[in-house]
Every structure is written in structure tokens, then in C-alpha cells.
Amino acid sequence: MYKLSIVNEDRPLDALYIPESLVCEPVMHIWLVKEVYEAFYEMNRALQREGLPSIYGRRGYLCFAYQKKLFQNEVQKNIRQGLKAELAYEKARRTLMPPGCSEHQLGLCIDIALHHMQQDNSISIYEESPQFHWMREYATSYGFILRYPKDKMFYTKFSYRPWHYRYVGIGHAKKMAKLGLCLEEYYEAFYKE
Ligand SMILES: [Zn+2]
């Protein structure tokens, strides 16, 4: 059940894990599994047909080494600001996953940007955008779910991230939306061995 894989600190991926059939998205130069790239492209076209501005993928597949670098940089930044190592790690953990623990390594998720050059990702930027409202309603029709919803932090154990969408395929996405389940709950209910 690759599309339903749960990756987190309890279930990290191997440092050597690389998904199959990665393709490079030509506008933002992020890498995604081909099926995800195609679904994202279709969703973006549908959004534009509704007269809404295009969305962009700010972050897609992240390899283990890159995750490690990002995380270490964040820890170092916190240490420079005067925190002890343990607290510096904890603070970094609130915004980033430790290496191997980010589901971005699956190549199935996209951090959405509303502008071509957008680097920041504050919650209000997304929640107030018409694209966000459209995606909350229709993303499942293209196989995407809002992976870390506000009301599911108990199950995801991760803070609310309105920009982070995960591809699970249309069938699963629609079923999860209909039942009101996040990925952890859905997997537990139907696919746990
Ligand atoms: Zn993300």
C-alpha cells in the first residue's frame, strides 16, 4: 500500500529509499512521482478553469541527505540563538521532521505556494486564499488530501499545515473525505495488518 504509506518519527524511511519514476516539474523544478505530477497538473488546470490563479509546488520529493541538511541547519540556527542542544532539537522538530521522517521522501506530497517566488508559509497566507478554499472542496477529486488538518493533530501528531498536500489516489482520497478520516485513522480502520 505504497500510496497509503505513513512516514513519521515512529516510522522513518531508510536513508537509501528513493521512489520509482520520479519526474521533474518544469516550472518550480521540484521532483514528484510521475502519477502525482500528472494529478497536480490536472488539478491546477481545473483550478484555472474556475478563474482562480495557478498554484505552484514549492517542495516535492526530498532526499534523505537534503532533509538531514535542512534539519541540521535549523538546529544550528537555534543553537546560535542561545538554546542548548536538546532544546534546539525540540524547537527544530516543531517546524521540520528529522531526516527520514518526512513523508516528502515518498515523492507523493507537495507544499503548495500561491506565487512563483513564495518562500514563506504562514498559515494565514493559505487559509485566506481562494485556491485553498477550492482545494478543500475539490482536491480529493484529483487524489490529494490535506495531510495535516487542524482537527486531526491528535492522530497525525503534527501541527496544522494548510500548504501540505499528499497524494493517495482518487479512490482513497474521496473515501477519506466522505468518512472524515485523516490518513492515520483511515489506515488503522481499513488496512492495518
Ligand atoms: Zn510539506
Indicate the structural class: alpha+beta
Small-molecule binders here are:
zinc ion
Cα-to-Cα separation, first versus last residue: 11 Å
Number of strands: 6
How many domains in all?
Answer: 1
Q: Identify the CATH class.
A: Alpha Beta
Main beta sheet, described? 4 strands, antiparallel
Radius of gyration: 17 Å
Shape: globular
Give me the number of helical elements.
8
What ranges have pLDDT less than 50 throughout 5 or more consecutive residues? Answer: none
Percent of residues in helices: 40-55%
Give the name of the CATH architecture: 2-Layer Sandwich
List the helices and strands in order: EEHEHHEHHEHEHH
Taken as a percent bin, the fraction of beta residues is 5-15%
CATH topology: Muramoyl-pentapeptide Carboxypeptidase, domain 2
Q: Give average pLDDT, whole number.
A: 94
Widest sheet: strand ordering:
3-4-6-5
Keywords:
193 residues; alpha+beta; Muramoyl-pentapeptide Carboxypeptidase, domain 2; 4-stranded antiparallel sheet; two-stranded antiparallel ribbon; 6 strands; 11% strand; globular; binds zinc ion; VanY/YodJ_core_dom; VanY-like_core_dom
Could you explain the architecture of this structure?
By secondary structure, this protein is of the alpha+beta class. It has one domain (2-62, 102-190): Muramoyl-pentapeptide Carboxypeptidase, domain 2, CATH 3.30.1380.10. The protein contains 8 helices and 6 strands. It has helices at residues 34-49, 64-80, 85-95, 123-127, 130-138, 153-156, 170-179, 183-190, and strands at 22-24, 31-33, 56-59, 109-113, 144-146, 164-167. The strands form 2 sheets. The chain has a 4-stranded antiparallel beta sheet. The longest helix is centred in the middle third of the chain and has 17 residues, at 64-80. The termini are close together. The mean pLDDT is 94. Bound molecules: zinc ion. Zinc ion binds at residues 59, 104, 109, 111, 164.
